[in-house]
Fold this protein.
Amino acid sequence: MKIIYNILTAFVFMAATTLVAQQTPGDKQSEVLIVNGGTYHLGNGSVIDNGHLVFEDGKIIEIGEGATRRMGKMIDATGKHIYPGFIAPAKSLGLIEVEAVRASDDEDELGEYIPNIRSIIAYNAESKVIESLRPNGVLLGQIAPQGGRISGSSTIVQFDAWNWEDAAIKTDDGIHLHWPSSFRRGRWWAGEPRGYSPNKKYGEQVSEIKNYFASSKAYTDTSVANEAYKAMQGLFNGDKKLYIYSDSEKEIIDAVTTAKESGVKSVVIIGGYEAHKITDFLIAQQVPVLIQHTHNLPKMADDDYDFPYKLPKLLSDAGVLVGLQNADASNFQTRNLPFYAGQVVGQGMDKETALQLITGNTAKILGIDDAYGTLEVGKSATFFISEGDALDMRTNVLTDAFIDGRAISLESHQTELWHRYAKKYGQE
Amino acid sequence: MALFIFMKKILTLSLLVCSSLLFGQDYFPENGGLKQAETEYTALTNATIYVTPTQQLTNATILFKNGKVVNVGANVSIPKNTVVENVAGKYIYPSFIDMYTNFGVEKPKREGGGRRSPQYDASREGFYWNDHIMTEQRAMEQFKYSSKTAKGMREAGFGVVNTHVPDGIARGTSVIVALNDEDGDAQRIIEDDAAQLFSFSKSVKSRQSYPTSLMGAMALLRQFNNDAKWYANGNSQTKDRSIEIFNTNKNLPFIFDAGDKTNDLRADKIGDAFNKQYIIVGGGDEYETIAAIKATQAAYILPLNFPEAFDVSNAYLANYIALEDMREWNQAPSNPKVMSDNGISFALTTHKLDKPAAFLKMLDKAFTYGYDKTKALEALTTTPARLLGKSDLIGSLQNGRYANFLVTSGPLFEDGTVIHENWVQGRKNVINSRDIKDLRGDYTMTAAGKNYDLKISGDVDKLKAEVKMDTVSFPSKISYSDNWVSLSFTDKATDEMYRFTGIVPQEGVNFSGRLLLPNGNNSNFRAVQTSDFSEEKKADKDAKKAPVMMPLTYPNVGYGNVTQPQQQTMLFKNATVWTGENEGVLTETDVLIKNGKIAKIGKNLSGAGAVVIDATGKHLTAGVIDEHTHIATLAVNEAGHNSTAEVTIEDVVDPEDVNIYRNLAGGVTSAQILHGSANPIGGRSAIIKMKWGESADNMIYSNSPKFIKFALGENVKQSNWESRSRFPQTRMGVEQMYVNYFNRAVEYQAAKKKGTFRYDEEMEVIAEILNGERFISCHSYVQSEINMLMKVADRFNFKVNTFTHILEGYKVADKMKEHGVGASTFSDWWAYKYEVNDAIPYNAAIMAKQGITTAINSDDAEMSRRLNQEAGKTVKYGGMSEEEAWKMVTINPAKLLHIDNRVGSIKEGKDADLVLWTDNPLSVYAKAEKTIIEGKTYFDLQTDLAKRAAIKQERTQLINMMLNDKSGKGGKKRPPMKRDKIHFECETIN
């Protein structure tokens, strides 16, 4: 009975989702396009007022002040703002569609140490949630499996694709490790007292991770297949990054030290609520931080009310390479990525520096800065044009967007419903 | 071995049987020996006797027989057949009463069985419809006297306890028991049904769902009281044993285990509604809101479980402890003193202490905080006796009372005083032999031709010894009982042990005896005291000086106010003023506020005595209003029934939630705290102002408009839970449930008019909806159900006031406009469940353009403090003008809540609830600089910085104090902890 019910739910759900078709991916760039006029926010801290941008075959071939001499189809951006596509790291986008519908949930596989679990093969390039991010300028993302100690391997994708192979721009880029906490919530449902208390098993859990690293590093006899250990090899030869989810200062130090001592070449911290206390350590270890997004409550009762708002600034001011992620938020919230960055401006951060938190810095941290994250000659033409300041919700209104030079649709399931009913009421 | 135990049991039993013959039961046959009555008196003479805590007699005698005092005084004539004990120099006090225990009653255990689907109906028949009302439960029937527990209690000074079954909301009656090991229940039980007991906690023995929340427990108690009245008038056709017993026992004292300072008030409120003054078992935090506690006029029973210091040695972990929890450690021992200084009557209890042995230690801690010792004695004797209505039997040593008293070596509660005996019903129980002497001091000990220095210290009944020869000291052990001293030490050089055993004579403290040498030979020794302990005692006292106590704040948590904000006359100069009225946005404009109201808006205003605020380049708006929040509450859902109109969030508003302060920092001044969406008919709302530091009642709007939460869709049909047993399971069922309830409310009102009806709080509330006196805010998602509820309302001739969430409102905006309902929605939420697939961020704009009063709400503690930005999103999604966008978080929600005549816009005469922003308030870059409610500044960026500094300083100070604290047993401290504060959303079931 239950199975029938589930099948039924799945069927009903699929039926509903296919009622409205997804946006069709844009065609390959076929001619030289020139964006003329407007303010160019490069994503590396610089800005060009009243400039131009020329792109061909999906690549930026010229960017600068004033007008260009090149010939091509013109896009007038006078009075508008041009930004590199925003990048959303550490998300399960495309792995889950509707949180409460189990049939649509593919984000968390069974098992504690499963680095060989690969997000990309389950990635739904036609997710309605993903297409709803694009009208806000979020054009790229890192798709990460969730849960467990080592959840699996992520892949970086662009958000305008026919299928997952089309979408991938860096496959199996990193492995995601959830570091244990030395202070943990009582499992009240299992009879423990409610509230948080020291985690007595912390030491044991850390040794377990160390052992796992040691075992996977020792895996050289490939005649016996071990897909999990095989997946780990990239960490030791520098092909893959290790993304460690951790918030507290002690745990971050433990995590980075453990990873480096185990031979992991490149480590990124995700979370970092207390990273501001150990900035010297992070800089010395060359560990960047994908900091928790700003629209969060303070974790401790006595913390400054605006602590989450200013945390990225505290790290940035200290010289840590920092980007923003919203791993702990619902996927649909990812369209608010620009506003998470805008929030830091209210705390005194320069707007162009704030922009780097979701563009240039993130690209560097994810290792895709050779092609994405900034508006520079030779890089991918992945950018958008907004009527106004894209970091402020009042003025983030996109008119055009391009991924690898392809003009993409800014419509979505949501805008279609909007037009349909606005028309019904004669509002358009 | 087994046989031996068996034999021993029989022996104990027969001893009990024998001795039980001694009192009272003279008509019982006796076959185990010869029957004879006791005729002797007992007298203790030459004592200092406290007949009551304030009536002291010196050189007095207490004479008693058959367990009761016959006479007490300085000139008591002692009959011939009296056993006389001369207790010269000793003190006699009435022994203590603990009126809140579960002595001899096993605490019921929750039955296992994992997570089954909820049980909605009662397990019993012929009793009240709710299993958690167990007025028929009698401790008398479950109680089993425990000599072991009694011994522990007696050692702490207690002679009588009131005991009950600590389970359920109505817990039945308690029994008063004397801690008399020797005589049976016929003698020791003083009252079979002493008091009725209540709490807010459900029985662990029943799995019946209702109530799932504190507010549900309150509603249940109210309804039960109403039903009891109705039943007493003979209206019921059927028999209800719970109610009958409750009514029979209605004149007994009612003891309510409230457990903390706010629940104290909740309990009292219920009592007041039914003309019964409860005796309230408090939580020990009453000192934080003492005025409100005093105003209850209730008597209290206070536990003394002062928290241990935290182990803050690990700086990383110490970080997790909140200031309020550190403060609690520092401040809680002041509770008895504060209560006493405020003239509040209370008894003390061992309740919540692991062992009664800790009681006197905790009491001692209260004394260091200035608690008066005479008051403490009252709280342990005359007060509980009076509260139990048993002053004629216990609590004092006047003639006719039970001979329940303590014999002590000196004044009670003083350092060095020991309890020698605890007499219960004339039965002597020795705790520390009266012959015990204070041996502490320095001695010269001569043994086997050598001289040693002996220093005896520690407690009188638990000594420590230090033996030295010249400068070499030897590890030593000492014990002292029944006049015999045993002392041993090891000569470290030779690793040889010397053992001494000696007797202390009747006169003096010098002792002598036999020494067993390491070689097995015997010798003699003698210890002569060279100086007594008095000097060190004095030093010890100095060390016990009053502790430093951190000042209280309002509320008493981090970011609390040291002093409450005062109403000011303020003049904002040169601001960009977002009026929210027809005047629109006025630039370079002044606003004067006075007496908590907006006095004037204009150019070049002057205000005599006004605090002038230069608002050049800044934006002044009305305070943000959140139509839908769940902060500042201790409960959200009463999920035990599908309709819970009888519960109200007003009962559970939590004024200490730091999210109130954070909301202020986001410019929010008012909000509706809604019941959750667990049931089609939810509970009533609380509409509050964010008056941080005020009591819950002061936060709630005066003459508040009346609201109730309704809910539709997946939550009420429990689609996402493992529950399939509660009606409704479909949207079709939801409609019929509403129709059913409204029909019943119509019938209820008709019956009420006729005068014969059972008062039903739930029906009263639903009738208010039908009469247009209460407004619905209905949680809603898809168009079908939205349309349905409007049709049901049409059928019963009322209007739905607000659809909240209303994510598919845009699909039926024309119908909503026609019905006249308002909308309160999320700016951009969707994709979290199936029914929000078609939720679009353009929803607010479409509805507003269709002429519907539209607000943006939060339903989320994080988002609520950025509602200004959420309003800004409607400019992006759907192209609202900035002025109209701003109204969505100010005047529009004010209209939906029917408070737009008071707040929501900048208009002369309205409440001065204002926010000064650093930037355009719709912008992500804007920060609230000042947030003002009724002319009082509740948030200010500068003050906030000062508060941060104060928190840092106070934390450091408290951490240092805790590092130095040695009060725990063996320096024991508790591990760091952080409370699990739940951030409620609609769907939270707590």
Remarks:
- The longest strand of chain B covers residues 41-52.
